[in-house]
Amino acid sequence: MLLLVPARLPEVSWVQGILANESEHPTLIGGEQGEALGQRSSGDDTLIAPDAESVPRTGGARRAKILARGHSIGRYVVIDRLGAGGMGVVYTAYDPELDRKVAVKLLQTGHGGSSRGTTGATRLQREAQAMGALSHPNVITVHDVGTFDDEVFVAMEFVDGWTLGGWLEAKTRSLAAILEVFQAAGQGLAAAHAAGLIHRDFKPDNVMVGRDGRVRVMDFGLARRMDASPDREAKVAAQLEPSPPNLDLTTTGAVLGTPAYMSPEQHLSKPTDARSDQFSYCVALYEAVYGERPFRGENFAALAFAVYRGQIADAPSGSKVPGWLRSVLLRGLATMPEARFTNMDELLAQLGRDRRNVARRWALVGAGALILAAVTWGTLASRTQASVCTGGQAQLEQVWNDARRSELERAFASTDKPYAAHTWATVSPIIHAYGQAWIEAHQDACEATRVRAEQSDELLDLRMMCLRERLQGLRGIVDAYASVGPDALEGLDAAVELASDLAPISECSDIERLSAPIKPPSDPQAREAVALLREQLAGVRTLAARGAYAQGVEQASAALSRARELDYAPATAEALVWLGRLQHLAGDHASAEQSLLEGADQAAIGRHDRVAARAWIELVEVVGAKQARPREGTLLAKVAAAANHRGDDDGQTADLAVALAAVYKVEARFDAAQTELEQALQLRQAKLGSDHVEVADTLLALGEILREQGHYEQATARFEAARTILETTLGSQHPEVARVYNSMGNAAIRAGRLDEAIGYHEAALAIREASLGPEHPDVAASLNNLGAAHEGLGQLTESLANHQRALAIRSVALGETHPNVAMSLNNIGNVYRTMGQLDDALSHYERALAIKIEALGPEHPSVGETLGNISNVHVSRKQWEPALEFALRTQTIFEASLGPEHPNVGSGLVNLSSIHAHLLEWDAALATAERGLAIFLAILDPNHPLVASARMNLGIAQLHLGNAAQAASELEQARAVTVGSGSKQGLAQTDRSLGVAY
Fold first, then answer.
1. With CB atoms 3.0 to 4.6 Å apart as the test, which of 162, 191, 322, 440 could cross-link to 136 if both were Cys?
2. So what's the pLDDT on residue 108?
3. What is the homologous superfamily of the domain 31-356 according to CATH?
């Protein structure tokens, strides 16, 4: 069944919204075509943008009048036409009453005399009048507002000079000169804000630099009063005709502003305020100092997406823009308005303060006494201010201090495990360094607001909430270490993984990340409840790392109940995804799928993009690999890749590659799996370092894929590399090293180097017995693999002894009815069947079957496997009717539980075709072989041995049905594969059948 993916993924709904907006704006024709995004706009010496012969129609908008010299607009006499833009046409004119030259703008209002046009005219006239009431040297003066033939006109002062864009292009400007001009423009914006007006279209072409040196902000054509109702604003905007999405022209309508300079809230048609102008101002200033805009995109949709995601470009190579200025700009460009400066005055103070400091330092050169006095005073003042930010040390010491460190060291030593000292020597410095980084980040976050005044209170709260979560994560790990003892080894075995898995402190200083569109609850009590919930989830994370999956599911379920009560989608998403992960690790894949799907949906609702990506990545493995639905897994991987748009900031790109590799492994697409794992390996090495335990895990997975492809030498090389990392990091006697030996032993078995395999498995067994004790279930796993190696060598007595010891350990450690006990019974049955002791084999299979049905249910795939083994006992006895009965039961279970296209279904069909052949039921033999071959060809390489076995059975059935030519074709193809495999028995059988066919 194809999985239907919800259409509520943030990226999907966001892009659809942009495209919907874009579709309303046809591309401009002729002289007003926009530039490529991310480039600087050009300017000229005119008041506004370039001339054009006519203003094009936009939708149903009324064409603006083109007036010749001498025409009158009210009392103003037209001299010349300056230019045109999306909001109207601008003329130079003469004011005969006051004997002065002015600029007159005729504003487009929409449909002539319609109610829509009337509404727009009324709004524009009212807001232009509000501008007329504003008097400031850095705002262009509005002299008069009126109507002319049902159009609104604005008469304003004429400025002889350049647009800011033209001024920047005229020649190279110094940083000081640019900042001086932008300071003046910013003062104009601040004055408008103080008067209750928002510009909403600030850009270089809406600022004039006069030849007199004075800077004026102009063209408040999209301005609105701060006290205007957002609902009313939206209704008015909906009545206005949209104009084209020229990236350097004003767009009116549902989205108001110039796209290249618009804030995220403008792109989303959300309510705006003075902080929206601040964002546009910082885009323009960024463009002025860097020579390029901060956000890139090849079209309107791509630009809007970059703005909304906060994807700010890196500084150009060789840029000399000082770090303090970039920090100011990045804050002004924050995605969330709350993370920007409180107002323009605060932003301008930051720009002016740093420039004054630079000038002051130069002015004081040579004035030694004054410098000494200033430095002394400044140091004392700084110390006094900084003293308010010293509480981090005390908070950390509640979790991690010298006494706690000594206590944990004694706890590790008390285990008497050979790797305990090495483990403590590894994790202790990691925890210490993490604690110091936490203190420094806590102090920096506090000082940024309380001392340096470069950060808002809202952003301080976000950073402190993040640091609180990190401290709780550290507390959970320290508590896990404290539980270590002679009879409690979970914390010891997982100690390095727990330390390595600590969430990065650096994320709490990542302004862009913290300013993502995930707003915390506005109510202080709700914020505190969310913080407590996340502390609880930090404990769940620790339980997952310790392998305490059942307890983790219980804790995650409790956290989810708490999250649902809060009714805060981001927190609900986090709880659901952690529950799904724990259910996945505990083996409850169906429940995990449901939790993760709901988690992805809640993350989309709450715009919690990182958690949405984590949900989809988990689903790739849960659905595609664990539940063997690879086609859905591949589809989910595409969704996960789209969700993980922020790249590899959390290593999630590598995680997705590993998950997709697991899906490809189910399909036996080993080349594709290898490619994904090699990408994951490269990413993890770059992010984590070449000696990280996750790098070792990736090397192990890659080695297993190479083993499946028959590349045993390459596989062993990867295993050796993983072993080196783990021995260095964890110690040579750590159980994880035994896991590597286990993989190396299995590769040797597959390569036919059975003596070598026994050596590896004995090494794994020795480590596990020493570190875990002789009765541990992992010891039983090593014994199981040793039994397989001895069986391959024909050493059936040794094989049987190992399997029987494994059975004894599992029966005591896990209980008589555990599925792993059934596994050992099944393996003992296999040895007895090889030995020809069919009664003993059948009795062990039947015991295994009863346990599996009781523990797993009668329809579980593992039940089908044991039924298949019972069928094989009947095949060995040439009892074809009961063999067919059990094989059919196997097939029914496989198809119902695994799906009709699973490889096990294909194998079962080929086995059925063999039994039908022995019963001389050639039509049934043909049908089952054909269907099995179709399944294999859909998911396996054509040269896979299973494909050859299906072709062999198909050819034999065709031969007996008299289809010699078809039989020969299938048998020839089977022979080609068999020759490559080196199977002499299979080749002889194929040749005999071919002889008959020919």
1. 191
2. 65
3. Transferase(Phosphotransferase) domain 1 (1.10.510.10)
Mean pLDDT across the stretch 434-458? 88
| Angle at CA of residue 103, ends 97 and 107, nearest 5° | 110
Domain 904-998 grouped into CATH 1.25.40.10: yes
- Tens digit of pLDDT for each residue in 395-416? 999 998 888 888 888 888 888 7
How far is the C-alpha of 361 from the C-alpha of 206, rounded, in Å? Answer: 35
- Got the DSSP string for 383-452? HHHHGGG--HHHHHHTTS-HHHHHHHHHHHHTT--TTHHHHHHHHHHHHHHHHHHHHHHHHHHHHHHHTS
What pLDDT is stored for residue 848 in this prediction? 95
CA distances from 826 to 573, 818, 843 (A): 42, 13, 10
Active-site annotation holder among 45, 99, 144, 201: 201
H-helix segments, 333-367:
344-363
Q: How many CB atoms lie within 10 A of CB 520?
A: 18
What span, in angstroms and rounded, lies between the C-alpha atoms of 101 and 79?
A: 9
What are the φ/ψ torsions at residue 796 (nearest 5 degrees)?
-70, -30
Q: What is each CA distance from 572 to 473, 503, 578, 611, 614, in whole angstroms?
A: 19, 20, 10, 11, 14
What is the sign of the dihedral through the CA atoms of 897, 903, 904 and 907? Answer: positive
Task: Give residue limits of the domains in the chain.
Answer: 31-356, 366-507, 904-998
What is the chain's length? 998
Mean pLDDT along residues 624-638? 87
- Indicate the pLDDT class of residue 43, thresholds 50, 70 and 90: very low
DSSP 658-723: HHHHHHHHHTT-HHHHHHHHHHHHHHHHHHH-TT-HHHHHHHHHHHHHHHHTT-HHHHHHHHHHHH
One-character DSSP codes across 19-77: HHHHHTSPPP-STTPPPPTTSPPP--SSSSSPP-SSPPP-TTPPPPP-PPTT-EETTEE
Higher pLDDT among residues 221 and 328, named by residue: 328
Q: Mind giving me the DSSP string for 70-133?
A: T-EETTEEEEEEEEEETTEEEEEEEETTTTEEEEEEEEP-SSTTSHHHHHHHHHHHHHHHHHHT
Strand partners, 93: 78, 102
pLDDT band at 257 (very low <50, low <70, confident <90, very high): low
Distance of alpha carbon 946 from alpha carbon 75, whole angstroms: 93
For residues 497 and 696, is the Cβ–Cβ distance under 8 A?
no
pLDDT of residue 387: 53
pLDDT, mean of residues 459-469: 87
Instruction: Give the pLDDT mean for 633-648.
Output: 78
pLDDT in tens, 664-673: 988 778 889 9
Q: How far is CA 234 from CA 255, 266, 728, in A?
A: 10, 11, 63
pLDDT, one tens digit per residue, over 489-506 is 666 777 887 888 788 898
Decide if pLDDT at 224 tops 70: no
Burial (CB count within 10 angstroms: exposed 0-12, middle 13-18, buried 19+), residue 157: middle
Structure tokens given for 833? 């069947």
- Known binding positions for ATP: 105
**Rounded Cα–Cα distance for residues 789 and 747 (Å):** 11
Distance of alpha carbon 679 from alpha carbon 644, whole angstroms: 16
Told to judge if 201 belongs to the known catalytic residues of this protein, a careful annotator would answer: yes
Burial 182-202 (b: 16+ CB within 10 A, else e): bbbbbbbbbbbbebebbbbbb
Most confident of 6-15, 111-120, 337-346, 758-767: 758-767
Nearest to 471 by CA among 410, 377, 547, 538: 538
Q: pTM to 2 decimals?
A: 0.49
Query: H or E segment at 914?
Result: helix 903-918
Report d(CA 584, CA 549) in Å as an integer: 9
